[in-house]
Structures
1.
Amino acid sequence: MTAMEPQFVLAFCIGVGLSAACGFRVFVPLLIMSIAAYSGHLTLASGFQWIGSPVALAAFSVATIIEVAGYYVPWLDHFLDTIATPAAIIAGTIVTASMVTGLSPFMKWTLALIAGGGAASLVQGATVLARGVSTVSTAGLANPVVATMELGGSVATSFLALMMPPLTILLIAVVLFFVGRKLLGSRPRKEGAEASKMA
């Protein structure tokens, strides 16, 4: 199978979609992926069948519960944020690699790191910024709301990636575009306001 075949493109879109979901929550997409593989609804690349094993399913279930619960503990959510970015990149890379077939190992992992790890890091960066704004503006009182939205985003993105892969990629691109535009657009206005105060 070559990289231009429809089956490859579909599998690649699933991988990147699930990788992006890792940016919201690291283990939720892995758990959903494990369930899908274990039940026979998702075919994994050679060497990654362990993701659909009972042991992996149990491990991802426990890890998901701990991760989700941790974001509702005030002091623990800050600690999780410090390790979430590298963890999301690693998870996103593995998820995309587990879906890609027909490439050499070097090409597979390079593509997985750039596309999967990149998608996870972009989404994770957006969630860190959102949590930072919430912490500053509400003294952390709204952080549980942000945590719930992130959890919902991870679950929804994971299911969409499995059911409508191309649409998921499009939606992720649109959301990241508007988030980036808003963040970059607010910076000049903020700097302009500070300059006018100094004047």
2.
Amino acid sequence: MSFTALKNAVLSEKIDWIAYTQPISVDWELPPYIDNHWKDIRPLPHYDKAQENKQGVRRYWNTENSKQGRYVVCASATLTFIEGNQDHVLSFLMSPYRKPTRLDFALDITHSDFHPRQVSRYLRRGGAITHAIQFLAFHDFKTGAYTQYVGTKSSETYTRVYDKQIEQKTDFAWTRLETVFQGERARPALAEYQKYKSVRPLIKSHIDFPTWSDWNTLMSSDVAKLTIPTKISNTRTWLLSVVVKALAKEIHRDEDHSFWFEFSEAVHQELDRLSDES
């Protein structure tokens, strides 16, 4: 029997990032399940105003430059929060008044021996079909994290395969395949996702290994979509059982929701500090 790295594998698909723009003349018109309480945050370059709601939706605009459109970002945590409304969100993005600028399509493989280094080996053997011409790999010798890129972040399409287990500190193996479509390729990619209801055709359109049996199994359309189990650490148990109650009481007493945004901004600042340190 031939070796397979996918024995006991658990697979899950998701859209992990959505960003879009719209003309400044068009009102935000966000869906009703998007919270409408906003807190000012630090703007990105080329914008002088920025806000975030408690779901993590961030919006940016420029009050001085009428040619600069409105910009909205929904990262992974936000999309998980509004997951039940994903079909409506995607239809909302296809409006002629909105222009998707970036979408990340992710396939997670857990509880298996499938690893980014295997992708690197097949790339070196010349077994890949892709339009990408650069294949950079990064190894963090301190943490052991390994990432293989197909294409570059400046490209309109690129794929990264990385060790999610080390990033999330789980006690089970976890590799993520993620293809990013940005710029002019974002809207066509969204249309293809709506057609297939799967991220795998989009990943395969950018990188394919036709002679690699494990890869062909991953990209087959009949693999079940399953939820990835997560380990609840002692710290998370304490946060969810003790801290969340105290936080909820404080937010409940705060009629203008200002404390929630102060707390959220403090968390983001701490995350930025940790990212800078790492």
